[in-house]
Predict the structure.
Amino acid sequence: MTDKLKEIEVGILVNNAGMSYEHADYLHLISDELVAKLIQINIVSLTRLTKAVLPGMESRKKGLIINVGSAAGTMTIGDPLYAVYSGTKAYVDAFSRSLYLEYKGKNIHVEVRLE
Amino acid sequence: MIVLAVALRVILTVLRGLRYLTYSSKSMRRYGGWAVVTGATDGIGLGYAREFARQGVNVLLVSRTEAKLAEKQSELEKEFGLKGVKVPCEMLFNPVLLFINLVFFSLTTLLPILPTTSLSPL
């Protein structure tokens, strides 16, 4: 994956891939595997992919990163029965906001979309 | 005075809306020749991929199901005549990291750890 990224000049990255629960459930009833997978896909993959494309964008002095968040991660009331999903999407939100401030001077625009 | 303020507010809102319309049309090429879209075979991801292709940006499609990827790739290539490269992958799914995550979560659920909120300055 990262090899492929080196071959092309990536101007835009859309971090859309993500997952949620199969159905609403209490935290103590969901499996550790599901928790780990949610964090792996919604947080770790997104962060690593973003990190992989940033050097190229920085050298070309332009770029656009769109992270797909969720209202579950931004609503102050939270998202009951989807606690881990809600937490991972809150990460996406805070991560994108911070990254926006970090790279706005380098002409790389970062935004989080609540689709 | 209030009427004037309201009118000004309305005009500004409309102008902002118009700016958004012009921003969203045919402007993605300025970022470069390639876009990477993860989860590109369905829904929002596919929507993004199609829009980039429409605007003349080549798209690297990333998803788990290879058959679906090939289908969407040829669809985009036929419709917009651009390069669409597919990368099937388990989204950087690293077994070591998965194991670390599992251990970490088992620990945090099993050990009676200090409530971290009481240590936070916030």
In short: Residues 2-24 of chain B form the longest helix (23 residues). The interface with chain A takes residues 28, 30-40, 44-45, 48, 52, 57-58, 60, 62-63, 85, 87, 89, 91-94, 97-98, 101-102, 105-106, 109 of chain B (CB under 8 Å). Residues 108-122 of chain B have pLDDT under 50 and may be disordered. Chain B is about 55% helix and 15% strand.
